[in-house]
């Protein structure tokens, strides 16, 4: 069972408006993410802290058990609900996130707890990553201790860092591009990256 979890619980503070409702290619960033991942994954869930938000998007919701904890809360809730081996977590504000690249990362994860890539500065990108069920107790413990940073969680886990070369033609410089600020969106719609 291949499950993609689209993170849609953020508050868009830096954008100063709901960035997931922003249009790109004739669709909102959120509906585009759901559509892309629905084509290749068995199930696509929206990770939300408010189950009534985005009622126009037809996808099952997974609601944070631990409220106000950011992506860590979404990851925890998704792993607790998932029936398969794990979940592929993807931020909805990654307009070029490719589900084929996600499947390749999953396939390359092997015995590790997490399969992921690094960004252009060499930092782990935890919001386009595969998390196995073995991560659940670690996430639960971190949340109970008030530790909400995924980067701290990763320090405790076995990681498989996938390189651009391993992704081959699925790699693009835009794959991990995220939209946080108004100028990011302006560049996106102008065709830049």
Number of helices: 7
CATH superfamily: Spore Coat Polysaccharide Biosynthesis Protein SpsA, Chain A
How many E strands?
9
Q: What Rg do the Cα atoms give?
A: 16 Å
Poorly predicted regions are none
Query: Which CATH first-tier class would you pick?
Result: Alpha Beta
Q: Any idea of the CATH topology?
A: Spore Coat Polysaccharide Biosynthesis Protein SpsA, Chain A
Largest sheet: 7 strands, mixed
SS-derived structural category: alpha/beta
Helix content: 25-40%
**Shape estimate:** globular
The portion of residues forming beta strands comes to 15-25%
- Tally of individual domains: 1
Strand order of the largest sheet: 5-4-1-6-8-7-9
H and E order: EEEHEEHEHEEHHEHH
Quaternary state reads single chain
Level-2 CATH architecture = Alpha-Beta Complex
Indicate the mean pLDDT: 90
Note down, in words, how this protein is organized.
- The chain is an alpha/beta fold and 193 residues long.
- 30% of the residues lie in helices and 21% in strands.
- It has seven helices and nine strands, in the order E-E-E-H-E-E-H-E-H-E-E-H-H-E-H-H.
- A seven-stranded mixed beta sheet has the order 5-4-1-6-8-7-9. A two-stranded antiparallel sheet has the order 2-3.
- The radius of gyration is 16 Å and the shape is globular.
- The model has no long low-confidence stretch (mean pLDDT 90).
